[in-house]
Amino acid sequence: MSEKVSSRKQQVRAEDVARHAGVSRVSVSRTFTPGASVSDATRAKVLKSAEILGYRVNRLASSLNRSESGIVALVAAEIDTPHRAAMIAELSERLQAAGKVTMLINTSGYEERVKDALLQAISFRTEAAIILSGAPDPSLADTCFSNGMKLVLINREEDFPGSLQIGPDNRAAGKTALKALLRAGCKRIALANSANATWSIVERQKGFLAAAEEAGVDVLCEVDGFTSYQAGLELGTALLDREDRPDGIFCTTDLIACGVIDAARQRFGLRTPDDLSVIGFDNIQQAEWEGYDLTTFAQPTDQIIDKCLEWCTTEQPSSETVKLPAKFVWRNSVQKARVPMK
Amino acid sequence: MSEKVSSRKQQVRAEDVARHAGVSRVSVSRTFTPGASVSDATRAKVLKSAEILGYRVNRLASSLNRSESGIVALVAAEIDTPHRAAMIAELSERLQAAGKVTMLINTSGYEERVKDALLQAISFRTEAAIILSGAPDPSLADTCFSNGMKLVLINREEDFPGSLQIGPDNRAAGKTALKALLRAGCKRIALANSANATWSIVERQKGFLAAAEEAGVDVLCEVDGFTSYQAGLELGTALLDREDRPDGIFCTTDLIACGVIDAARQRFGLRTPDDLSVIGFDNIQQAEWEGYDLTTFAQPTDQIIDKCLEWCTTEQPSSETVKLPAKFVWRNSVQKARVPMK
DNA sequence: TATGCAGATGCAAACGTGTACAATAATCAG
DNA sequence: CTGATTATTGTACACGTTTGCATCTGCATA
Questions:
Q1: Is the distance from CB of B225 to CB of B195 less than 8 angstroms?
Q2: Which residues on chain A are in Cβ contact (under 8 Å) with B259?
Q3: Which terminus of chain B is more exposed, N or C, with fewer CB under 10 A?
Q4: Which nucleotide C1' is nearest B66 CA?
Q5: What topology does CATH give the domain B2-57?
């Protein structure tokens, strides 16, 4: 039937344009290839015919004999989380500006899905895969490399040869958080973290606890639930319900911090910063909201992305681990300093 | 130099696998093509060799002579906005489950970028483009169709032949919002909306105002800023600062509603629902947070996506406009009914 | 006029895969 | 054992590009 033919032939090819413009097929290709040699007259004819016929270069086909596909894979879980969403928004924006195309691969759920994601990326001959959550099997990474793909791990610092590992200096931030709480005069200091936390989130906890040990102060640790607002509510409730109620809490995530603040306000009638000092991490949009006004750490998103793009566009990039300082953002969820700096 | 060769030849091809397994190249192709005829012995050999060599079918190449690329474009602006992010998370998840691959195109900024986005989608022979914000030029849409691409417009109901237009029934929701405020006994009713609102958001406003006129009540209209929390803060401040301070506000967006509630609480010491009733729209995650506990409308996300996928996988789908009811979500930002239902 | 040169164009061969068709091997009924 | 049927494999071409090489044109230089 004719339907079969139409569903087969419906694409406009370079040859159609060539025939319409009365030039050879290669001239069409050259017209759309920057730096190729075509006369102005030919180019004009081609462009006009292409416009009329609605022709667009088939990048699937052109990727075949060019070495670059122009596609970059973004692998991430829980992409509706504020910080993750902001990261993806920025990354896709910048990739686009750099002439790349982003393929989004959602890996929420099983950890196994990172593997499937990378296999998919390989299938589409992605130039690079930027992994925002989780980490691949080393052998799988090798398969990526052997197919000419670059690998970026954000927020992972494990030893992973051949890739770029980049993220904030989580330990240093944890340390800074403790100092800030001490300087605010907090006497009973606590930490609220999720039991299902990412590697990088656990690093923040470690940095915080290490600094506490160094300073010789006890820290009340409450670890439970997921990295979510709801977990924050519960963690906050558990902490504030104690007899030795803490007066300073470091939350490993802004979402948790928001939950803790709401628990304090709605369930205990406590206010930040007067009754309770709270510090978060990520600087999500809600941290700026008037109801929270959260003192927190801003992820060095811009610098991370800068480095990402630069590394990915390098010809033969070498393995690299980059730790960038997270900027401490002073707002109003922590008591003004009572203890003077020495 | 050898580097040039390696950067050229580094991809593992079906032919390499064939040679390694001692079979013909087509047998490799058939092994990875569901339903093709290969003997178990051959398939086993091929799979083993493929595993060893790290071979993956090049989908760019296979898309050339199959008619389907498996790629679906997601076109959206401001993808770090809570509702948008949730939508993208769900969509990418479901597309993946349906065996599709999602290409994310960020169109924040100029309206013109929707055009570039679609041109890019055509270049990659995307099977469909799902547009979450903005609308394309009709002539451009035709180019899409002539290249065999399907078009879905979410949250647009303009007449757009050849595409699926789907979204919540915004007018009906506006109407429901007004009734709810009246039933709560509100005397001075207001509407808070952004001056840069989307088409669908304006529909909510129209529905609300139409219902008000029908009921013979005056509505205080405050329209300014962007569709953001900050705009909500300012709109709320402006409204609550008036002599005839409103006691019921419909916000066309949850983000605006959160801003209004915070303005009430932080700047005027007013609480919902006692001093003020507030209704939002979108049912973003923050609406559920204890500090807001916002009564709002849930977008029929699941049904929208169901319909999307079904329509996109239909062979020759016909133009269709679908309006789905938005579910009213009762929480605690609106006074309990003082006026009995009649 | 002959020589060289640069720009424009065409031919043919890739890129890596899927599939119609023909050819071969295996199976089975008689 | 023969012919018919089926399962498997191989050959050749198609998909829509880009690109190396060769050709051709026009033009300035010696």
A1: yes
A2: 289
A3: C
A4: C18
A5: 434 Repressor (Amino-terminal Domain) (1.10.260)
